Amino acid sequence: MGILAWIIIGLLAGAIAKAIMPGRDPGGIIITMVIGILGGLLGGWLGKVIFHVHSINGFFHLSTWIAAIVGSMILLALYRAVTHGRRS
């Protein structure tokens, strides 16, 4: 997948993760995209380690989206735990 596909998946997976886990987050579209991209990488890595499968197959594969969304949700939870006390 190209960089544009990673950005699109990251933006959408981060937005879906934020919709599934609503709350006040001190981040805009850039933070959402970064969380989504890193979440996709984390989800793909976890899929490989835990289930011994290559979960990031391509842009239109369901496994790619599930891995990206689950990874984004994990990173979003970590992001909220780290920045929880910093909000005013």
SS-based structural class?
mainly alpha
Q: Are there runs of 5+ residues with pLDDT below 50, and where?
A: none
- The N- and C-terminal alpha carbons lie at a distance of 39 Å
Q: Sketch the topology as an H/E string, one letter per element.
A: HHH
Shape: globular
If you compute it from the alpha carbons, what radius of gyration comes out, rounded to the nearest whole angstrom?
Answer: 13 Å
Number of domains: 1
Largest sheet: none
Mean pLDDT, to the nearest integer, reads 79
Strand content: under 5%
Give an account of the 3D structure.
With 88 residues, this protein is mainly α. It has one domain (3-83). The chain has helices at residues 3-20, 29-51, 62-83. The longest helix has 23 residues, at 29-51.
Furnish the topology, listing elements before pairings.
Elements: H1 3-20, H2 29-51, H3 62-83
Helix pairs in contact: 1-2, 1-3, 2-3
Concise synopsis of the structure shown:
By secondary structure, the chain is mostly helical. Helix content is 72%, strand content 0%. The model has no long low-confidence stretch (mean pLDDT 79).
Structural features:
single chain, globular, 3 helices, 72% helix, mainly alpha, 88 residues
